[in-house]
Structure formats: structure tokens, C-alpha cells
Amino acid sequence: MRLRGLGVALVTPFNDQGAVDQSALEQLVDKLLVSGVNYLVVLGTTAETAVLTAKEKERIKSIVVSVNSRKVPLVLGLGSNDTRKLCKEIKKVNTNDFEAILSVTPYYNKPTQQGLYAHYKAVSDTTELPLILYNVPSRTGVNLELNTTLELASTSSNIIGIKEACGDLNQIDKLIANAPKDFEVVSGDDMTALESILRGASGVISVIGQALPEQTIAAVAAAMSRDEQQTKFHHELLLPLVKLLFEEGNPAGIKALLSLNSYTGIKVRLPLVEATPNIRQRIKEEMDILKALTV
After folding, report:
1. In 10 A of CB 253, how many CB atoms?
2. Cβ within 8 Å of residue 29, ≥6 positions away
3. Among 25, 166, 185, 256, which is most buried by a count of CB atoms within 10 Å?
């Protein structure tokens, strides 16, 4: 699998009773396929995977696989701060319809770099599927440092790339410059995604991309073609909305935006709470401005 272009980290829509909304998820996936996204990430951070039951996860996988019908590659989120538990889960779970696994760094435990290396080596030894590292220090409390990533990339043949959401462009620059030729560096941060792609990242796993797929595809294409003027145009167009989406946390913001087009409701599960009326109004106003500018 090549992690090129726009990947989308899918939300999990919930209905008014708080259950998984199958119809909304089907509609969202179908919209993204028609729009031309390059791949979909199922059961990642944005999907609120931490608060889903095992039965709900299987149902979500089944829904996405059915609608996708092998049109685009699917990446499955599988991560834990318990390495043994994660390896057992990977052995047990059905991954036949997925091209790769996206696995977040262990959270809460705050392992050393040696611990992170050992964790990912254990995971990579457990599966033959391509494995994508996921570094998001703002959520996990630990940064997967440059040398650790490079060592994993050079010693594990099925570790094919990293979703890098550290927000540090200097670290990303060094990673791109020193990574093996076939190792993909993918932005995991909508805020810095276009700049990262201009610097050599192969694409982005995006949150906003599921609400604005056409605009995000155009933005990513401009950055990948190294058109700095067009990239700047798209960045300035999308940045105010991106900032609003994360002001009260993800996925509360993106669900508020998706609800404007009735793709999903605004419900999230505790300990997350719905976007406030204030942020929802500001998102609507910013969306109205964006529509006016792109007519």
C-alpha cells in the first residue's frame, strides 16, 4: 500500500439514542468514495474507538467494508498501551479487508524510546500486514523521536510509514530527509498538513477531509505538485475552519461541521461532550464564508 494523497479518518456517527448510526455512516463513506479520496482509516482516534464495544467495532468495520466494496484501500486502527493485549487482538481480529494497520504509540504509560521501539517491534512481528506508526504526543504524552522511527523503519520490513502528528515541522523535515526511500511520512495534523506535503510528506490522514473532501483533495494536490501559490491559497481558505474544528476537541468539531449537511448528528460519547452552541455557530458562519469564496 502507498500512503499517497488524501486519507480520511472516519468519525463514528451516533443517533439520538447514542447508538451507532448505520445509515449516516453508509452515507458518509459513499460521499467520500464519490468525491475521490485515496483511502479511508477505520476505527482511529476520530472514530472514538476508545469508547466503542467490541461488537460495535465489528459492526462499523462491516458497514465500511460493505459500502467501500474494495473501491479504495482501508486502514484499520489498532492500538493499545498494553503490548501483549494488542498483539493478541491483532492475531484474533479479521483483517482480510484491510490493507494496513495504523497503530498509535502507547499512551498513559509514558514509555522510553527503548520501550516504544520494543512495543512496535512486537507488533510488527505479530502481523504480516503493513504497519503504520502513529505519533500524536498531544494525546499520548510521549513523542516517538526521530531516531526511534528511523530504527524501526530500517529494521522492520512491514513498517511502511508513519502518521506524524507531532506538529513539529523540524522533526518532520529530518524524518523526510533521513527515512528509507520506501518509507512514507504522512501528516496527521490538518493544521500543518499542506506545509508538510510541500516539504516532502506523501499526503495526509485528515479530519476535515470528510466534511470538505473536494476542497481538501484540491489542496493536497496543489501541495503534492509543489505549487506554492495554490497551496497557500488553499491553506488560508481552510485554516480558520480547521482551527475551529479542534477548538473544543476532536471529533466534537468535525461532527458539528458534518451535521450542517446532515451527514451525521453532533452526538459524541462521554467523556467527550458535544460542541457548544457557540462553536457550532462559529463553524456555520465560517462555512458560509468558505462557500461564498468558492462559488
Report:
1. 25
2. 10, 40, 63, 64, 67, 68
3. 256
- Segments forming the whole domain that contains residue 72: 5-224
473544543: which residue's cell?
A: 248
Q: Which residues are marked as active site?
A: 134, 163
pTM of the model: 0.96
d(CA 73, CA 39): 5
Query: Partners of 203 in the beta sheet?
Result: 5
Phi then psi dihedrals of residue 101, to 5 deg: -115, 135
For the chain, how big is the Rg over CA atoms in Å?
18
| Structural domain contains residue 260 | no
Inside any domain, residue 29: yes
DSSP secondary structure string, 53-93? Answer: -HHHHHHHHHHHHHHHTTSS-EEEE---S-HHHHHHHHHHS
* Residues written for the chain: 295
Task: Note whether residue 285 is domain-resident.
Answer: no
β-strands 74-77, 5-9: how paired? unpaired
Taking the C-alpha atoms of residue 13 and residue 16, their distance in angstroms, rounded to an integer, is: 10
Give me the phi and psi of 102, to 5 degrees please.
Answer: -105, 120
- CA 146/CA 154 separation, integer angstroms: 12
- 54 is written with which cell numbers? 467490541
CATH classification at residue 53: 3.20.20.70
pLDDT value at 1 more than 90: no
Chain segment 34-51, per-residue pLDDT in tens = 999 999 999 999 999 999
The answer to whether residue 249 sits within a structural domain is: no
- Give the total number of structural domains in the chain: 1
Amino acid present at 228: E
